[in-house]
Write a structure and sequence with these properties.
535 residues; Rossmann fold; Serine Threonine Protein Phosphatase 5, Tetratricopeptide repeat; 27 helices; globular
Length: 535
């Protein structure tokens, strides 16, 4: 390693094996005048990087049992911006499985080094990374500053002087154009380089433009072509799943993510998305397995949160009734251990309330009714004390669990309370934030269904119409609204407007691309309309 290349650079070495760390440290110390920092402990890395700016991080992948791994650390450093784009990160690992490599590469280390390696190999990779960082320094600085126009200008300048990093510059420019909504400029670059070597991003870009233009079949075709040619280019699976969702093909969206997870099962973002689709499609067995994997993979990462446990238990509650009583009790043991750990890790009152009510649901499935009642009483007692301190969206989530326990009155009270809180905040701000809109829509839906169950049809119609206004493309809201309109008209034949509104909604929904479940429900609503209208 040439001293002149590295003498003013700051190095951080992260390796839990002391002999390996010492070899790397001696190697680096011969070539830099700066102090070389090192640590055995994964939990120290984030705070170290907050205190100092490093030019190079030599990052081990396996950092010990029950510790963050190199991939998780790299994600944390990048997401929290503890390191910038100028920092060189070389991931060093003895594990070379496809799943690990693909998961690590999704977080874009600058280079990858497999053990056993020679110091000469490390030196070559460092020199290659340093050459690129210097050539792209001004572009990376503009990216770190979120200055899209400056990024474009600097990339164009680099291209004008024949930068060896032409492909990366073109990819960066096109992404800036897309984010600036200058789609024609982005599309021009995508089309020009669609068939160039290492330009899979161009096909992804064309697919994204097609999605924006609502050319869904064209987007689907592009992403499928990319998967066929480059089956390990995982973002193509993600975008194809998005396309299927836009077409309301939720089953296909689930299946394509399942294919991606077979290739790279450690991607948490993809795993969560897949699990959510499984829940939507009522594949509770798959959802339970996916959320369990998510829970375990997220434990030492920035994705560790109470929601991982709650989602797992909710999926299990859907799945457990299909199991034998013996097997249901076995999986319940695991679920209760997860809930116990959740309340240790997170002290929020809503989490503790949810833990009691979810525990009650689990006990009901295994017919332990006395234990279920004990959990309900504990949850109700804590809720009465803490309700005013719980956020509206959390109250909505708790109300859904209460409905499972047939506590409909308490669930309705929480929905009313959550909506009043949201509306108060909206009045204070004079406008909805995106979060408030979502909270209000969810509250409207749940309250609308509760009012319908109580035969308060006019109030239910109003709430569902409010939710449909906020989310006009939501098929389930439309189907719920049709049902309430028809039942309302059937009960008192007044007002006739309800029947006309139901007819108009039926015609609109008929033109949509529906899932099998939605199509079956639509057919029932059509028959109901014919019956009520006397056709």
């Amino acid at each position: 390693m040439t001293k002149s290349n590295y003498q003013n650079m700051r190095f951080l070495i992260v390796d839990n094996i002391k002999p390996s760390q010492d070899i790397l440290k001696q190697f680096v110390m011969r070539s830099t005048t700066k102090q070389v920092d090192s640590t055995h402990y994964a939990q120290d890395v984030a705070s170290i990087c907050q205190q100092k700016n490093y030019d190079v991080i030599l990052l081990g992948y396996d950092l010990g049992d029950n510790q963050k791994n190199g991939q998780q650390l790299l994600e944390e450093l990048r997401v929290n911006r503890y390191i910038n784009r100028h920092c060189i990160v070389i991931l060093i690992t003895a594990e070379v499985s496809q799943s690990m490599v693909l998961a690590a590469l999704e977080h874009k280390p600058d280079h990858y080094l497999c053990k056993p390696y020679s110091l000469n190999e490390l030196d070559k990779r460092l020199k290659s990374c340093l050459h690129k960082k210097k050539a792209m320094a001004r572009i990376y600085q503009a990216l770190d500053d979120n200055n899209a126009e400056l990024v474009i200008n600097r990339c164009k300048h680099a291209l004008s002087i024949n930068t060896p990093y032409k492909t990366e510059c073109l990819g960066i420019i096109s992404r800036q154009y897309f984010e600036l909504q200058q789609y024609d400029e982005a599309k021009f670059i995508y089309l020009e380089h669609q068939n160039s070597t290492n330009c899979q991003w161009a096909t992804i870009g064309l697919g994204k433009v097609a999605l924006h233009e609502n050319k869904l079949h064209q987007a689907e075709k592009l992403f499928k072509q990319l998967i066929s040619k480059f089956p390990l280019y995982l973002s193509s699976y993600d975008w194809l799943s998005v396309t299927y969702e836009e077409q309301f093909h939720k089953i296909l969206a689930e299946e394509i993510l399942e294919q991606a997870l077979l290739l790279s099962p450690r991607s948490l973002t993809r795993l969560k998305k897949y699990a959510n689709l499984c829940i939507h499609n009522e594949h509770f067995d798959k959802a339970t397995a996916a959320y369990e994997s998510n829970y375990k993979l997220a434990h030492n990462s920035i994705h560790h949160c109470a929601d991982n446990t709650i989602k797992y238990v909710q999926a299990l509650i859907g799945h457990a009734p299909s199991l034998s009583l013996i097997n249901a009790r076995k999986v319940n043991i695991k679920a209760f251990s997860f809930l116990k750990q959740m309340t240790r890790d997170f002290n929020d009152s809503d989490i503790k309330v949810q833990s009691h009510f979810l525990g009650a649901c689990l006990f009901e499935i295994t017919r332990d009714h006395d234990l279920a009642n004990d959990e309900i009483l504990k949850g109700e007692k804590l809720l009465a004390i803490e309700q005013s301190n719980i956020a509206p969206e959390k109250l909505i989530n708790i109300s859904l669990t209460l409905k499972r326990l047939n506590k409909h009155n308490l669930a309705a009270q929480l929905l009313v309370a959550s909506q009043e809180t949201v509306e108060t905040k909206v009045d204070e701000n004079n406008k909805y934030s995106s979060i408030n809109l979502k909270d209000k829509a969810q509250a409207d839906i749940e309250l609308g269904l509760t009012l319908y169950a109580q035969k308060k049809y006019r109030a239910a119609i109003g709430k569902l119409q409010d939710a449909s206004t906020i989310f006009p493309k939501h098929v389930a809201i439309k189907l719920n609204l049709i049902q309430v309109l028809l039942v309302s008209y059937e009960q008192d034949r007044h007002p006739i407007k309800d029947l006309h509104n139901a007819k108009n909604l039926l015609l609109r929904v008929t033109k949509l691309d529906l899932t099998m479940n939605e199509l079956e429900r639509l057919k029932k609503m059509q028959k109901k309309y014919q019956q009520v209208a006397g056709i």
